[in-house]
TrEMBL record:
One Pfam short name: Integrase_H2C2
InterPro entries: Integrase_H2C2, Retrovirus_Pol_polyprotein
Classification lineage: Eukaryota, Metazoa, Chordata, Craniata, Vertebrata
Protein name: Gypsy retrotransposon integrase-like protein 1
Domain of life, per lineage: Eukaryota
Annotated ranges, domain Integrase zinc-binding: 135-187
Amino acid sequence: MLFSGVGCLDVFAHQPLLDPQNFRLHFTPGRDNVVADLLSRAIPNSPPDPYLAPGQDQAEHDLVQLLHTPLQETVSLREIQDASADDPTLSTLSTYIRQGWPARVPDEMLPYSRVRDELSCWNDTCIARGLCTVVPSALRARALAMAHEGHLGIVKLKQRCRDVVWWPGIDKEIETLVKDCTACLLSGKTWGLMYEGCVRTKT
């Protein structure tokens, strides 16, 4: 094999593997390789997207819609509003936030009372702790399922949830979710449960 030029360094690196083979190299310019570039060169003429912002690239718009739509379909703002209004605990909490806390707080409200200075009410029925949404009880399982979609471990899942959602006992529910997850168990993220009583050694 005879090659020249700096561009052939990769070929030289693989020369010991290529020497026993009987082959012939043929270069095809990219402009002539229409099969590999078919999708970008054969776009049908179509009317502009009415939802496309001025100056926004169509591919960027499609990608944003692709990523955002599943989240909207899973838990919408309207669902959070309705579920918060139907949740008796959050309804009481909303009243406390807007009208003031009583001298004696019911037992079920104590976890919220401990963080009362961080709580706020928005959209009349929704409640936030700092920048995190306080998820009503009816949506908590779905919220955890969404956060655990990539099968994160306990620590990373807690970190992800702490940025966006909160409710009393969320850390304990996360630990239970990951420990009961078959995929996490098989991947070793819950090693302690899988081999309870065994001693883990370094290899």
